[in-house]
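Milestone 3.1: sequence recovery, worked example.
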């Protein structure tokens, strides 16, 4: 089963909550994490996983109570706003990881020459940079969709200052972001 990214996010943004595993509808769902490889079939972030039969990455999923038990999901029963809050947190966390990687973690790769550590990843390995950059852009698009959901539902955005800090960090690195200037 190939999960379409836009379709997945659109379904999540639709009014009714549904279990990502079995499709059951409900006003509340368990939102949480699992490392169960079987959950790779429907977890959003696993869309690009090459081998879905063997992915033990930590996956954020939205499931009904029966599926939470089946896939050993460590989560909590929340309504739609609760789910969007968790998804926003997850998106922010992923963006922060991407920034940490661009700032410094890539330098710890053993292939990187000591003398190259003073440069930016975009100079040292443009292809790897492009890959990371497009992943970050996709996360930013997701962030904007989540942001829009809070606006449309007239719910306050949790920790709104996060965004300006993120923008400063990205621009400080000399890169661009969809989240501001
Ligand atoms: Zn289910
Ligand atoms: Zn995966």
């Amino acid at each position: 089963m190939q999960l379409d990214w836009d379709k997945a996010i659109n379904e999540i943004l639709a009014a009714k909550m549904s279990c990502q595993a079995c499709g059951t509808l409900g006003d509340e769902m368990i939102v949480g994490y699992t490392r169960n490889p079987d959950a790779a079939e429907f977890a959003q972030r696993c869309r690009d996983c090459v081998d879905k039969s063997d992915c033990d990455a930590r996956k954020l999923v939205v499931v009904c109570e029966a599926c939470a038990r089946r896939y050993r999901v460590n989560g909590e029963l929340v309504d739609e706003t609760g789910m969007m809050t968790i998804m926003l947190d997850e998106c922010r966390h992923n963006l922060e990881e991407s920034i940490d990687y661009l700032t410094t973690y890539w330098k710890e790769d053993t292939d990187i020459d000591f003398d190259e550590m003073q440069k930016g990843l975009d100079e040292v390995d443009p292809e790897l940079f492009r890959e990371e950059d497009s992943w970050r852009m996709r996360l930013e698009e997701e962030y904007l969709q989540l942001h829009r959901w809070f606006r449309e539902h007239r719910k306050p955005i949790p920790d709104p200052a996060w965004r300006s800090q993120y923008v400063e960090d990205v621009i400080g690195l000399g890169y661009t972001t969809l989240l501001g200037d």
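Residues 80-172 form one domain. Residues 19, 21-22, 24, 63-64, 66-67 surround zinc ion (ligand 1) (CB under 6 Å).
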